[in-house]
Structures are given as structure tokens and as C-alpha cells.
Design a protein that fits this description.
The chain contains eleven helices and ten strands. By secondary structure, it is an alpha+beta fold. It folds into three domains: 114 residues, Butyryl-Coa Dehydrogenase, subunit A, domain 1 (Orthogonal Bundle), CATH 1.10.540.10; 109 residues, Beta Barrel (Butyryl-CoA Dehydrogenase, subunit A, domain 2), CATH 2.40.110.10; 142 residues, Butyryl-CoA Dehydrogenase, subunit A, domain 3 (Up-down Bundle). The strands form three sheets. Strands 1-4-5-8 form a four-stranded mixed sheet. A hairpin with a 2-residue loop joins β9 and β10. The longest helix has 29 residues. The relative contact order is 0.11.
């Protein structure tokens, strides 16, 4: 088994690390405290110029074509510096990939290049609703046939990048008489479409530099040709295609956890208590050893899921395992990093406080940890052999 990266993957990883260190890290705290979208949008343009908005997208549509492993590597490096920027980039990549996977040639030509080249600052998904979070099949948003248009009505919640996205993939019920989850379709919606309204920006705990908004569809008129994929097949698209987003969020969480432990380890080498650096205390050493071990295991799970996705192999179970484990251990790493810093870790003078806030949501969005466990358990429930003596 070869654990080495290809030369292309190494170059992409090094480029992402350099950009994150030079461009994202110096402004991450300011972006967090001011929510200055100009800072974010400026860096999103730069990321597009580097080819990071379509990492696994075919170069015919303006993508890099480097694959899912490279995507995971980039998200980890960006996550180390600024989670608000990383999550925006992750979602934009997933929007481009979904359109590439199930869109018509016209849709690919119209929407993927602007996502990849930065004409659109970002792409967004419109799936979650007030009563349809972990259970998206329960959505209430509807799409009715209006002749030359689809007419969408409903509300979506917690939509990443809604303030500045150039295109949204929005799911709606197109056959209310179908079995649950069977009558849902996906649509490509532009923010200037009549009846499309971006609502308030949520007051969040972390990732403050990234907008998270409600969107309102008030008789929103969507051209017939903007149906994405097959009519009434939208739920399958959501389940299958968004699995790649779990790799992105897990990779970003890994980056956050690594930065937290790197900072805490450096701090422990300098912090003197009882006449010696606290890193010489066994309690601190074990926290460091355990966290880095768990983070390395998360990295391997993520790369396995990314590799399988890249090769066209089944990867949903592996993506759920990777997302579950990476986000949980990243949360633990940030918790322990704050504990190592003590009272200083709780103050905004040190970056661990922001990292702690930023990492918390990673166990919630793109499928909660509990949902990932259900997916993993169902796989083994369906595939486990029946004992011969039963």
C-alpha cells in the first residue's frame, strides 16, 4: 500500500499551505471580529486564481482536475488558517462537482467556469429547512410547473455563503403525492431571479467571517432548463453527491485541530510553572501524544475516503467514518489545547479561543455525528453475514 502523495498532490498541498500562511492566517482574527466580507471575498478571488475552487473539476470547465485527495489536502491547509474561508471554498467545490456530475452540458458551461474562475465568489446549497435538518426528505419547499418556469416557494436555513454566492443548488418537492423523499427535485437558482430573497445573517458562535443566511423563495421563477438532473430524483442527488462535502468538512476540521495542538505545544514549551516548562509534565505530554495520534488517524481516514471517491469506488461509508472521526477528534484537540493554555486559552488574545469556536460546528453541519453513526451502522446492518449457528 502506497501512502506517498504524487508530485502534483505535493505541489498543491505546498501551495495551499503557503497561501494559508501568508494570506489567510494574518487576517483570520480580523475577519472573525469584524465580519468584513471584503477580506473574505478578496481571498476567495485569490483562491480561485490558484485553481482551488474546482480542485476535482474537469479542466474543460475551468477546474484543476487534481482529484479528491488533492481537495482533502487543500481543505486541511486552509482549515489550519481560517475556517470561515475554508468552509466557503469547500461548499463551492461541492457545488461545482454536483453540477459536473448531474448537470446538462449547457448547465456545466454556464455555471462551472464562473465558480472556478472567481466570477462567482462562491456557490451554495439550499437544502436545510426548519423542519428538515437531519431529515431533509421532510422538506416543505415546493416547486410547481408554471409553463416556462418552475415556481419555488419556501424557506431554507443555515445557507453558507448566501450573501455572495453566484448560484445555488436548491431542493424542492415536485411531487407531493410521492413517497417521502421520492418526489424531490434539485434546481439551479441565481440570486437575481425574481422572488429569491436572502434573509438575515445568523448570529453564530464561530466561523463568523462566513455568512450563514436564511433564503426565502417567494414565487421564485426558475427557468425550466435549470432543473438539475432528473425530475423527482433530487433526494438521491443530495444523498450521493453531498457525501463529498463530508470529506471537505472533515479535512477542514483536521486542519483546525492541528493548528490548535501546534499552538498549544509551542505554548507548553514556553510556559513556566513550578520552575519548569509545563511540557515536561506527563499530563501535558499525554494530551499532546493522544491528540496528535488521533489527528493522524483522522488524516488517514480522510485520505482513504478521498482516494475511493477519486477512483470511482463506493465511498459513502468511508466518508461518514472520516467525517465523524475527524470532527470529533478535532473538537477534542481544541478542547485540550485550551486546557493547556489555561486561562489564556479562554481569552481572545490567543487564537485557541477562535479555533475552539470554529471547530464546534463541524460535528453538526454536512450531517451530524449522530447521522454519520446511523449511516455507518446501517452499512454493517445490511452487509454483516448471518452467523451459521443462528
Amino acid at each position: 500500500m502506497n501512502f506517498s502523495l504524487t508530485q502534483e498532490q505535493q505541489i498543491i498541498q505546498e501551495t495551499a499551505a503557503k497561501f494559508a500562511k501568508q494570506e489567510l492566517e494574518p487576517v483570520a482574527s480580523t475577519l472573525d471580529t469584524t465580519k468584513d466580507r471584503n477580506i473574505l471575498k478578496s481571498n476567495l478571488k485569490k483562491l480561485a486564481a490558484l485553481g482551488f475552487n474546482g480542485i476535482a473539476v474537469d479542466p474543460r470547465y475551468g477546474g484543476t482536475g487534481a482529484g479528491s485527495v488533492a481537495f482533502s489536502l487543500v481543505m486541511t491547509e486552509l482549515g489550519k488558517a481560517c475556517a470561515a474561508t475554508a468552509v466557503t471554498t469547500s461548499v463551492t467545490n461541492m457545488v461545482a462537482e454536483v453540477i459536473q456530475s448531474v448537470g446538462t452540458e449547457d448547465q456545466k458551461q454556464r455555471y462551472i467556469p464562473p465558480l472556478c474562475n472567481g466570477t462567482f465568489y462562491a456557490g451554495s446549497f439550499g437544502l436545510t429547512e426548519a423542519e428538515a435538518g437531519s431529515d431533509p426528505a421532510a422538506m416543505k419547499t415546493t416547486a410547481t410547473d408554471g409553463g416556462d418556469w418552475w415556481i419555488l416557494n419556501g424557506k431554507k436555513l443555515f445557507i453558507t455563503s448566501a450573501e455572495y454566492a453566484g448560484v445555488f443548488v436548491v431542493w424542492a418537492v415536485t411531487n407531493k403525492h410521492a413517497a417521502k423523499g421520492r418526489g424531490i427535485s434539485a434546481f439551479l437558482v441565481e440570486p437575481h431571479f425574481e422572488g429569491f430573497i436572502v434573509g438575515r445573517d445568523e448570529h453564530k458562535m464561530g466561523q463568523l467571517g462566513s455568512s450563514t443566511n436564511e433564503i426565502i423563495l417567494d414565487n421564485c421563477k426558475v427557468p425550466k432548463e435549470n432543473l438539475l438532473g432528473t425530475l423527482n430524483d433530487g433526494f438521491r442527488i443530495a444523498v450521493r453527491e453531498l457525501g463529498g462535502g463530508r470529506i471537505g468538512i472533515g479535512s477542514m476540521a483536521l486542519g483546525i485541530g492541528l493548528t490548535a495542538m501546534d499552538y498549544a505545544t509551542s505554548y507548553a514549551k514556553e510556559r513556566i510553572q513550578f520552575d519548569k516548562p509545563i511540557i515536561h509534565n506527563q499530563a501535558i505530554q499525554w494530551m499532546i501524544a493522544d491528540n496528535y495520534t488521533r489527528l493522524e488517524a483522522a488524516r488517514l481516514l480522510l485520505l482513504q475516503a478521498a482516494y475511493k471517491k477519486e477512483k470511482g469506488l463506493p465511498f459513502m461509508k468511508e466518508a461518514s467514518m472520516a467525517k465523524l472521526f475527524a470532527t470529533e477528534v478535532a473538537n477534542k484537540a481544541c478542547y485540550d489545547a485550551m486546557q493547556i493554555l489555561g486561562g489564556y486559552g479562554y481569552t481572545r488574545e490567543y487564537p485557541v479561543e477562535r479555533l475552539y469556536r470554529d471547530v464546534r460546528v463541524t460535528t453538526i453541519y454536512e450531517g451530524t455525528s449522530e447521522i454519520q453513526r446511523l449511516i455507518i451502522a446501517k452499512h454493517y446492518m445490511d452487509t454483516a453475514p448471518v452467523p451459521s449457528n443462528v
